[in-house]
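ARCHIVE CARD
Drawer: 12
Card no.: 0347
Subject: one protein chain, sequence and derived structure
Cross-reference: see card 0346
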Amino acid sequence: MYKATTQKLLFVFLLGVDLILFFGSLGDTGFMVLTIFLSLICVLMFFVKYEFQINEQTLLYRIQLFTFAIYVKQANAKDVQMIHFKRVSWNTRIAIVKLYKGWNMRIALFSPDAVFEELERYAERNNIAINKTKDYKILKKMA
């Protein structure tokens, strides 16, 4: 089981901007309601967790708020078209599991980092095409 959480610094920044807008709009009740709603969403995002599980034949991607599942996607090996590995920032790797039907799974910022090697083994076991960018290969050598 691989786990990730939201990037909290981003939501702290958004919450700060939202509070500045709230105090700047004390006379406009419609705008105040909107900023309160956005503040609530920012606070709730602190409690979002992501889980990714790799089994012999299936991949399970789950997004949870507290302990409630918001989004669950399970894909069998036959549902996976390919797995695309690439670099998204200076030293962050990402894997995109492309499915024949439905939304793709974006695997980034999961810990431990062995998720990428496990995905490669999963693809080899199940004869799934793999695509790696040149930048990803460089990052993999450095890791």
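Annotation on reverse: The chain has four helices and eight strands. The mean pLDDT is 88.
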